Amino acid sequence: MAKRAGLTFFLIVLGFGALCLRLLQLPFTQPVQAKSGNQVIMVDRSRGAIYDRAGRRIVQDEPEFFAVVRPTAAAMQALGAVVSQERLQAAEERLQKGSLVIVQVDTAELPCPDITVLPAFPRYGKTPLAPHIVGYLSGETGRGVSGLEKSFDALLESAAGELRVLQAVDALGRSLGGALPQVQTENYRSRAGIKLTLDLEIQKIAEQAMNMHGLERGAVVVMEITTGEIIAMASNPVFDPNDVAASLQDPAQPFYNRALGAYPVGSTFKCFITAAALEQGFAQNTCFTCAGAMDVGGRVFNCNKREGHGTLDMAQALSTSCNLYFIQLAQQLDAQPLLDLIASFGFGDGSVLAPSLRGAAGNLPGLEDFALPGELANFAFGQGKLLGTPLQMAAATACLAGGGVYRSPKLILASVDARGSETPWVQETRKRQVLRPETAEQLRSMMVATVENGSGRTGKPDIGSAGGKTATAQSGSYSDAGQEILRTGFTGFFPAQSPRYAVTVFCENGTAGSVDCGPVFQRIANAVNARG
Question: For residues 352 and 364, what is the distance between their CA atoms, to the nearest angstrom?
């Protein structure tokens, strides 16, 4: 059943049977009740729709065409002009027995009165969009197994419908010559379903940007700053919901949504250490000296510039991503207020997006952890026990760029009934003022400078500017060749002066944030800016 989508045609069963090709949706006439002497052919079965924020269908949006062919010479001749010889021969065997045949064709019209072409929409197209969010269906039951298909299975299934063909037949199951087939619909391709915060076009942009820059294992989250709404959320590698079995043994774990998984966050976290310092009264011109290495509790920590950066202020340290500056800065901060502030950005707290769909909580160290040698130093540049998700980082970045206001991520906008009327989806949301507006403004300016002249230059859009920060974090895992696997990232916002979108890019096995993720951010910003 899971391979129904790969069928190119199917044959009619006898009058008591029905054959389901795949889950599709299609508007047609009112249903006609089957009677004795009629053959009912199940063409497809649909379920509720999933829409983007503009009301565009994310599933069931790519049509395919099926020809309902009556057993006549004219129909055979017309069919032969548009299908392969192999497919024609298979259909001919049934037609010669006097039965209807339904064959997949590549055209929406066939000029023959004995052929009716039905457009149909598979649940998932040839290039499924946002599969980790949408999820997939069981090939045996047709019910949701993962993603929103699972979260809203009851709602989507309540909008199920069918597309059938009804044909009058004689006692031997042969089509009656004067009776034309009737197309039946019963709630087929209902308008009922759910509406998401996703923007279909920006989702495509995010997915394409990852692929064009070779981000084979990673994630992208795009969030609207003023609302907390998730505009795009992509994860690589992807699975094919039309053929789930093909991905079950893939060691790359294509079913895992990396946008919701917890990883070391790396140097993007320096933005939040900076915010904490400003909130605790440290001035932007606070200076420390980087000599390239320093001993902390018997452990030696190195900077990314082995010879050292010399004396830096806060903005310079963020722009150059100086590890030792932030170690020294973190050592001067009051630990409990620091942890409280980081928690208020959403770190250490799971993000509930829908029933049974949530992001990992990650891990936020406690005061007791800072008693361990070097743990506070690791924390200062986003490593050690600290873990966060790309979704958490996008929401926290939106807070920095949005005047210091944190908004919990939101994915569901509304449920939609069969008439198209929307009922807003009610869920627990959090909105809080985390930073003083002046602190947020200072962070915004420093992050813009980092993209303009610092380590984040690879993320700079071609038109306009952005703010951002790179990350390259150790993972503690090693490749077969003995090299440590790096988790790299870029988090930022654009436009620079009036930020609208926060974007986090994550690479699971990268080289450097500026190399793996900065160009992905840049391409997304360029494409979104080009839309106007």
Answer: 18
